[in-house]
Write a structure and sequence with these properties.
- The complex is a heterodimer of chains A (265) and B (250).
- Chain A is mainly alpha-helical.
- The longest helix of chain A has 31 residues.
- In chain A, 77% of the residues lie in helices and 0% in strands.
- Chain A starts with a helix and ends with a helix.
- In chain A, 46% of the residues are buried.
- Chain A has one domain.
- With 250 residues, chain B is an alpha/beta fold.
- Chain B has a single domain, classed as P-loop containing nucleotide triphosphate hydrolases (Rossmann fold).
- Helix content of chain B is 37%, strand content 26%.
- In chain B, helix 3 packs across helix 4 and helix 8 crosses helix 9.
- The termini of chain B are far apart.
- Classes of the chains: A mainly alpha (265), B alpha/beta (250).
């Protein structure tokens, strides 16, 4: 398992070296808190029961996890372009080990970013979780990072270049964010969108975070909407599906020969 | 001693309707310096990728130091080093960090990897640049670092796929001196692909490849004698009907 450790260490070193990426990941939720928070707070139907910025907090943490883990996993595309993936593929390790290493790297990055943001965000909105709540939030963050990392990896292994990245952002990241319950309760959505929300891994992560952090508002209808066990099971399920799908796709790197050959013939 | 480093029997690979490699029969002896000479698109890289288990063969079998490339792919990858045409180093990490990363991928414990990395950066003239990001290195130094990466786990067979592509003549020469020293020191088998005739000249044996087929095999001297010419360039022309520089219609 030294190889998994090596892959995770590389992800961390690379992340910490990109100062812009670090600042963006810490700053992004606060930009949403200030701008989206201010606007939605005024029109939020439940504003007599809960401060909208408090309601947003679990969703913002979910968002940090999503960007953190997904961007880390999508670095696989750059690895492929830069040739680094080939160094990994020619090493005497299984494809599954590579997938696990990349997904765990994404988990570590997503979790670390969420912990840093939580330490700043929760005091700012005067949200003080119980010890049990904080522990459950930690479980939610780790599992969501793993699920996002694994699915992101499957996505990264199947897209050919970073040019497709904008498409990923528009058609995967934003719908996932809006249908996650991060900004408004999913139960207010129409039946079709609500159905889509059920296949959204972030929805389960955010729901579990609401169980953890908004327990006090559960009776008013702003806590988690599904059972915590369902959330946990769904996140584990997404992680497994992502890893199983990503492993063989990574080996498609062999296709490098094929593209090179086509260019020349 | 005479155990084969590489044995290929009817090895072939198709990409869709393109037959990249027809049917290759090849034996490379342990400790041999073997050259695969041919123009771009001849199937050289495909051959290396098949032998290195990065591609699955469409037909035939191959064994590398006795391990089957399909059934025992991990054992094959453990026994070989592979330096690709383009660098595989992480440009944002330092030379040292790249080698540490490779050490972990090859499951070398720290106490084993650290002195070995130390020795390699010294031997390859990278000592002063070891803590610089790879992207700041010259092309020649990057190649040397790639080679260090390929040698870190002390492979028995080293594949060099067009290792000097894009390097200036002086850097090329110093890279060849380095590879020569490695061979002498460890009895390493080297499998080289190249489209430069002068790089195939010092090989023990050379296989000439064109359009996915072997067209000639022997020592450089044998090839020239049997073809009745004085250079490998002419050997290629005589056996294929076109010059090495031309890719030919594919």
């Amino acid at each position: 398992m030294r190889a998994v450790y090596g892959i995770v260490v590389r992800e961390l070193v690379r992340f910490l070296r990109q100062r812009g990426r670090v600042l963006a990941s810490i700053g992004r939720p606060f930009v949403w808190l200030i701008f989206a928070g201010a606007g939605y707070a005024a029109v939020f139907a439940g504003r007599n029961e809960i401060d909208y910025r408090v309601y947003m907090a679990p969703g913002l943490l979910g968002m940090v996890v999503m960007f953190g883990a997904l961007l880390a996993a999508l670095s696989t595309v750059t690895d492929r372009d830069a040739g680094v993936l080939r160094m990994v593929l020619v090493a005497p390790i299984r494809r599954g080990t590579i997938a696990l290493g990349k997904a765990l790297g994404a988990t570590v990055l997503g979790t670390t970013q969420a912990v840093v943001v939580a330490a700043l965000l929760l005091p700012l909105v005067h949200l003080r979780p119980s010890i049990a709540g904080a522990l459950l939030a930690a479980v939610a963050v780790v599992l969501s990072s793993l699920a996002m990392g694994a699915l992101g990896l499957a996505l990264a292994a199947s897209i050919r270049s970073l040019e497709n990245f904008a498409g990923v952002m528009n058609f995967v990241v934003f719908p996932m964010l809006f249908l996650s319950g991060a900004l408004y309760p999913v139960r207010h959505l129409g039946p079709v969108l609500r159905l889509v929300a059920y296949v959204n891994p972030l929805a389960y992560g955010v729901d579990l975070l609401k169980h953890a952090l908004l327990g006090a508002w559960a009776s008013a209808g702003y806590g988690g909407e599904m059972s915590s066990w369902l959330d946990i099971a769904a996140l584990v399920g997404f992680a497994v599906v992502g890893l199983v799908a990503a492993a063989p796709l990574l080996a498609r790197e062999g296709g490098v020969t094929r593209t090179a050959f086509r260019q020349r013939v | 001693m005479t155990a084969a480093a590489i044995e290929a029997r009817g090895l072939g690979k198709d990409f869709g309707t393109i037959r990249a490699l027809e049917q290759l029969d090849l034996d490379v002896r342990a400790g041999e310096f073997f050259g695969l000479l041919g123009p771009n698109g001849a199937g050289k890289t495909t051959t290396v990728h098949l032998l290195a288990t990065l591609l699955a063969p469409t037909r035939g079998t191959a064994r590398v130091v006795g391990h089957d490339v399909v059934r025992d792919d991990l054992a094959v990858r453990r026994a070989i080093g592979l330096v690709f045409q383009e660098t595989t180093l992480d440009r944002d990490l330092t030379v040292q960090e790249n080698l540490r990363f490779a050490g972990r991928l090859w499951n070398l414990p720290g106490p084993l990897a650290v002195p070995r990395i130390e020795g390699l950066v010294r031997q390859f003239g990278l000592l002063e640049r070891r803590d610089d990001p790879v992207r700041t290195l010259s092309g020649g130094m990057r190649r040397a670092a790639d080679l260090a990466r390929g040698m870190l786990h002390e492979p028995r067979v080293l594949f060099l796929d067009e290792p000097t592509a894009g390097l200036d003549p002086r850097t090329r020469r110093s890279l060849w001196e380095l590879i020569g020293r490695l061979r002498q020191a460890s009895g390493l088998t080297v499998f080289l692909t190249t489209h430069y005739v002068e790089e195939a000249e010092p090989c023990d044996r050379v296989a000439v490849m064109d359009h996915g087929r072997l067209v000639a095999l022997g020592t450089p001297a044998e090839l020239k004698r049997t073809t009745g010419v004085t250079s490998l360039e002419e050997v290629f022309l005589a056996r294929t009907g076109h010059a090495l520089g031309e890719t030919g219609a594919g």
